[in-house]
Amino acid sequence: MKRYVLILLLPFFLFAFDQKPTALRVGDLRIEGRVNPEGIDARQPRFSWQLTSEQRKLQQTVYQILVASSEEKLAVNEGDLWDSGKVNADQSIQNPYQGETLKSRTEAFWKVKIWTNQGESDWSMPQHFSMGQLYAVDWKGRWIGLDRAFAWDTETQFSRLSARYFRKEFTPKREIKRAKVYIIGLGLYELYLNGQKVGDQVLAPAPTDYTQGVKYNTFDVTALLKSGKNAIGTILGNGRYYTMRQAYKPYKIKTFGYPKLLLNLVLTYADGSTEWITTDDSWRATADGPIRTNNEYDGEEYDATKELPGWSTAGFNDQKWLKAEFVQEPGGAYEAQMNENMKVMETVKPVSIKPLKTGGYVLDMGQNLAGWVRLKVQGKRGDRIKLRFAETLQENGELFVRNLRDAKVTDVYTLKGGGTETWEPTFVYHGFRYVEITGFPGVPKLENFEGRVVYDDIPTIGTFTSSNPTLNQIFKNAYWGIRSNYKGMPVDCPQRNERQPWLGDRSTGAYGESFVFDNSRLYAKWLDDIQQAQKADGSIPDVAPAFWRYYSDNVTWPGTYLMVANMLYRQFGDTESIRKHYPSMQKWMAYMAAQYTKDGLITKDKYGDWCVPPESKELIHAKGPALQTDGVLLASATYVGLLDLMQQFAQLLQKTEEARTYEQQAVAMKKAFNEKFFQASTGQYSNNTVTANLLPLMYGIVPEKQQSQVFTSIVNKIVKEQKSHISTGVIGTQWLMRGLAQHGRPDLAYTLATNRDYPSWGYMVENSATTIWELWNGNTANPEMNSANHVMLLGDLLIWYYEHIAGIKAQTPGFKVIEMKPDFPEGLTEVDASYRSGYGLIQSTWKKEKGRLNWSIQVPGNAQAQVYIPARSVDEIKENGKKVTALEGVKLVKKEGNRVVLNVSSGTYRFEVNQ
């Protein structure tokens, strides 16, 4: 048997509550994965695995998957749920389950064997998943809560509502084989069993429009149970369910009610019988605990003198507690949460602490982040410490908070006294670099504080570094900004009184982010949020979930729905998201065409080319018409691009007639577009902004013979008028870097990426930014809108980093075939990048020195790459000192311009060429 490694991935849909990687070894076979995904509700799981080998040219030819209802059956190769048999296929990602119908709470154990051109594998180590409660009728018990405020609460625009505590004691009747909890805790929950927190998630579950769908989490709690009396306890926080803006601007802000709980604990005994512990009015409840108020925008107040020692253990005296009350259900369908919960992903140390003249201290974390501070303190009972958060400082060293609008962003901790106390909040997060500390007993020191970085528990799958420090810092800023804004949905900012999942911020952003993070489950979930927010007539909002009622019927924001689905297909090979959402996409496309077509074009636009660099650095938006792009042009060009996507989706789904219809519609709109906006004599569109010319060029609207002329207009505008600086907003920047690189000016793209004066990403770096700003002039603009932690202005920058600088691009969906075609721009001498695709690790490391290019690449098993090497002929290229034409796994494809194109099979290569 040939030696190679088989790495087993989670099926695409699965969500593991314990997501710590595990590595097991049997002989020469290593299996890696995430353990115990519990309570999923996908009826047709998709299975993936990875292959690597010490030898080149590894290709899968056959696979066999076994899925069994018990470990014992799987051990003897009995796939009673599904035996795929030998499948002649080279696909090792997104292989769908095709076995027996999976029922509620089914336990499933699976493994895979593969056959390759290098031999046959052993069976992989067993992996496990379980089904959730697939139907509403599977849920037992009733919703409980306390639907009112208490004497210490206030309900205003700045509502202060304390956390709710619920508990229940129970005694198992027999020996327990397995125990699972299914929980829907709205708005947020913390779950305890016998005094121990269940899971390491925070701020769970993921937010939704609770009238449309509510997420449940599942936990295997067998190890936490004991013989005799047990106790289960849950704390409910407010989250997005009960917001700080409760009953404030009801025409704009959607509210849902008071926190509530539905919980099922299913005990499976050794004799096969089951018992259910469910929420009902036998549970006890109180709101008079230590969490006195909590909301996402204002902060959390915790009074340690009100703590309830032992409240989630058996024997606690709850006689003064209230009887839990039956409450109305939220209205949305019960859905297993397939995307990852949030988690404390990193702990960082502060870099300085300084006293303020006005009293108190300012703590500097050295990095803008999203999360909270963990506090360690010793003092007297009743001492109150206030922590107030901000991204930047005023000149006098005090916090700058005007850009936070009316968010109070303050945590308060009241000491119980009697020794060292450690505390961190439970149901809030903040976007911050600086913390104002008041009321601290004595002199605070750095060791009293830690920053807790909180975002979705997703792996980092991409790395990038280069010889240019500006590129490196921008990448780092993007990394911190992206993860700051992953909060069970992609939000626009983590700090002010907004934090909304705006669609327009992620149309291209999601694509760039996918090179850095495995955001596949997050964005698959977000597509569901968008679908649930769609109106019956087809309208899609600008914010989804629609916490804000913004249905403005533009194209550029809702069009993100299609673009994210396309990203999931391109980057992860996910066809299911397209299949699932295609009807809703069709409905929206038809709605927009019916409502807003005039003279063959789409007339409705809301936001323009949002946030172009304005003529004055104090402005938020440009005022002069020369800087603004026509809204009909923006809407119609984008709609043409979406018609092309719909055509591709229809072809993928084998809807031939529908594909032809979309193609015809695109042809007709391109004609109308050019008749209205194109000036053939000058090679310009509309008023000749970069965006006005760039969109038709990138969406294939420009007649072929005029493409060079239009591109020249773009270059002249950037170089001559803008002095080689950015002049685009959110819409134009989505195509800017790729547009320049693909049409022959990679040098200009590199200039834009490395500028350090205004306006540029490097200008943010030059002004000490550690994340990406909302505005190009974020340090000088009106503070009504200048978040220091946004991602929308990244546009296609990260895509350019990977596809054009590193040379890592999916030529076919999921990176089965990789295009490796770096631009190798002048002035950049080194790049080291990696990306872990579904097929495995892709690496591209190149260095230019003394007239020689050294380029090392890694192509994962069962994949191949088209490699574009700058050389006059194939004879100039060496691989580890040998001619490439003599190597196994390397094949000459063609000569294209100044590059030699090689087809490279899986393996590691080191190419050398004189330049």
UniProtKB/TrEMBL annotation:
Q: Which reaction does it catalyse?
A: Hydrolysis of terminal non-reducing alpha-L-rhamnose residues in alpha-L-rhamnosides
Q: What class of enzyme is it?
A: hydrolase
Q: Does the keyword Hydrolase apply?
A: yes
Instruction: Supply the alphabetized keyword list.
Output: Hydrolase
Q: Which InterPro entries match?
A: 6-hairpin_glycosidase_sf, 6hp_glycosidase-like_sf, Alpha_rhamnosid, Bac_rhamnosid6H, Bac_rhamnosid_C, Bac_rhamnosid_N, Ig-like_fold, Rhamnosid_concanavalin
According to the entry, every stretch annotated as the Alpha-L-rhamnosidase C-terminal domain falls at 807-882
Q: What is this protein called?
A: alpha-L-rhamnosidase
